[in-house]
Amino acid sequence: MANVVSNLNRFSWILYTFLCFSPMLFANAFGLEAQVLCIGGECANIPTEYQVLGNFAGPALDRIYTNGFLRSMGENAVLQNLNSNQSGGQNITSYRLGLGYTISRGQSKARDFYYENSELRNLPKQGVAASPSINFTTNLGEWISHGYAKRWNLTTHFFPYEFSEANIPFVKIRNTEVRGKIQNYGVLFRYFPESSGFSYGIGFFQTNQDLYLSSYDRRPTQFRIDGDKRRWLGVNDLFYQSRISSFSFDVKYNWTIGFLSIVPGIGCVYNHGFTSLQVSRYSLISTRANPDDFSSDPSVLGIRLNTRYDHVSSFGYGSLGFRLGQGNFSVTTELMAGREMQSANLSLNYQF
Q: Which InterPro entries has this protein been placed in (predicted)?
């Protein structure tokens, strides 16, 4: 048995090093698409569609919602989904049911917004993910009549969650309607070698997120076309979506003192999917002669921008869990941290 544990430890370090520190296997696609529509007499004073795209489309996404920011938003959501699983570091000998809440926050930020005093400046510049979850753990020995199966736990979690600004942390956007939904789920198999304290987890996760933002300008704000000062007044919408499938591998060590268990660990996750962003703005524009004149020659400018980041990547993370147990009940918390992102979970569990 000592040789088996030694080989497992050696294999886990090799797999962790390969997945977490090898370069990306494929290139990530990041492209910007833009459509501009102008209706009204003032449209004749906008030189060409190319210049409109240059003045509006490029700065809106290429300089602000960069591929690095979209990658961070997607991976931040994946880390939150992993932490919702709460497989723990102790072998559950029968069944366990838990209810928890997980939050995650990234450090990568979008750049300063180009639209000066427009309400667009209030759109989020930092990735955030949060949701409750239900987790269920079973010992495979309850299903398979073989002594070896008792060393395996199977943990699943799932919770469809619709949110608004009122029930998602860190998101406080003035004069902006916020709504969305999260449908995350996952399954993780954990193996406990006999009397070693170590455990090894292999998991499969699906991260689904939709976020809708809508705002309007409270007053006309300034922009420029070919050096001429203009003002515009309109509405802004943003739709963010992520669909990411993940494969994870982790190693944990359980240290128990009485009713307290401390479980440090390291892990790695490989991701495949996409993060997309669509921004649209529809505005009245002032005349070239008078930046305050919106009525003499009514004109409307519509801009729609789309971008997508394809996730074919991996990242490593560290974890630290704590468990307080009394009878069949336990309270657990686990902290996870990757590069430029952190996650925390708190859950109440009942073993039966």
A: Lsa36-like
For residue 182, give the nearest of 160, 165, 166 by alpha carbon.
160
Work out the number of other CB atoms within 10 angstroms of the CB of residue 19. 18
* Tokens (6 digits) for 125: 């510049």
- Measured between alpha carbons, how far is 173 from 211 in angstroms, rounded to an integer? 13
Q: How many CA atoms lie within 13 A of 92 on its CB side?
A: 27
- Of 307, 336, 267, nearest to 29 (Cα)? 307
Three-state DSSP state, 150: helix
Average pLDDT over every residue of 334-338: 93
Report CA torsion sign: 161, 208, 343, 263.
Answer: positive
Distance of CA 60 to the CA centre of its chain: 21
Distance, in Å, from the CA atom of 66 to the CA atom of 68, rounded to the nearest integer, reads 5
The candidate with the shortest Cα–Cα distance to 69, out of 263, 279, 215, 287, is 279
Question: Would the pTM of this model clear 0.70, i.e. be above it?
Answer: yes
Q: How many Å from the N-terminal Cα to the C-terminal Cα in the chain?
A: 30
pLDDT in tens, 292-332: 899 888 998 888 878 888 888 899 999 999 999 988 999 99
Least confident of 4-8, 93-97, 170-174, 233-237: 4-8
Determine the pLDDT at residue 235. Answer: 86
Cβ atoms of residues 277 and 72 within 8 Å? no
In terms of Cα–Cα distance, which of 181, 285, 303, 291 is closest to 236?
303
